[in-house]
Amino acid sequence: MSFKSIKYKIMNRAISLIAIAAVLLFTSCSSKFSQFSSDKTEVKIPEKVNFTAMSKTGDEYHWDFGDGEISTERNPQHRFVKSGQRTVSLTVKKSNKSSTTQMKMNINPTDQCLIEIQTEFGNMLVRLYDETPLHRDNMIKLIESGFYNDLLFHRVINGFMIQGGDPESRNAPASKQLGGGGPSYTIPAEFNPHLVHKKGAIAAARTGDAVNPEKRSSGSQFYIVQGTKQSESGLRRIEDQKGIKYSAEQLKALTEQGGTPFLDQEYTVFGEVIEGLEVIDKIAATQTGKSDRPVKDVKMRIVSIH
After folding, report:
1. Phi then psi for 218, rounded to 5 degrees?
2. Please, which pLDDT band fits residue 17 given cuts at 50, 70 and 90?
């Protein structure tokens, strides 16, 4: 082999090594600018997780949380509402380059019975009480059949409550009188002195005492309490009238956040809003017309969380 051939061979090998090194360098750099971290890698729903992208110079950030939800924020916060293993991915675009990094997360089931009420004003996360199993199980059964989807909050009274769950409200014309619909059954009352009409309480609607002396609940209609702030002296009078005793925690909730305590032991309280109290205020503030029905329909969609 001539010296020139050996020289060309060495040069070609050197060029190849440089090319390989360049590819490796490009790959290494690409993988780095989409790296991210989270403050938790294993959670119990419905916990929120904070995600942080390592790159601060990306042109675009696209997050996929593996549960159908996405975000384009650089450092988003996400609340997981379904259990299982999720693959979270971040794709970062910088100039004409794109890089994706993935992370596995274990989302464990909750030890509470939770539902989410979705509206155009935001979502409310509701805990259904184990102390009222008949109402809890009935609502879950209806939710899982899709019963509540696209029903209206058909009765809204600012400073009092928002009410929905009438199946006749689905696609109801503006002139239709609502509030009398429901399944062909009622539910026995489940009164509990530990469960009160504080702001965010979810309670079953029902017909009046004259036709319903047992105070049985509607099979589907419910209301969510907004109420007003109560005075301690007023609450003491209600205690005397009803023969009940509010705990220090209940007094605090009713005086600081508000409620409708005059309804205690009259209507079954079977859950409470634990996230999204502000959504109640937004819906309650909507303009209403005849029979307290919002002029612009306020639809709901309710999903159970596992």
Report:
1. -60, 150
2. very low
**pTM, two decimal places:** 0.83
Q: Which of 98, 102, 85 is nearest to 35 (CA)?
A: 102
Torsion, Cα 78 82 83 89, to 10 degrees, reads -40
Phi then psi for 171, rounded to 5 degrees?
60, 30
Taking each helix axis as running N to C, give the angle between helix 232-242 and helix 248-256, from 0 to 180 degrees, rounded to the nearest 10: 130
Q: What is the DSSP letter of 230?
A: P
Handedness of CA 127, 129, 133, 138 (dihedral sign): negative
Cis peptide before 173 (omega within 30 of 0): no
> Can you name the residues that pair with 37 across neighbouring β-strands?
52
The pLDDT of residue 9 is: 53
Q: Looking only at Cα atoms, what is the longest distance across the chain? A: 113
Which domains does the chain carry? 36-108 (2.60.40.10), 113-305 (2.40.100.10)
What percent of the chain lies above the pLDDT cut of 70? 90
Task: Spell out where the chain has E strands.
Answer: 36-38, 42-44, 48-53, 60-64, 70-71, 77-79, 84-94, 97-108, 113-119, 122-128, 153-157, 161-164, 186-187, 201-204, 217-218, 222-225, 269-275, 301-305
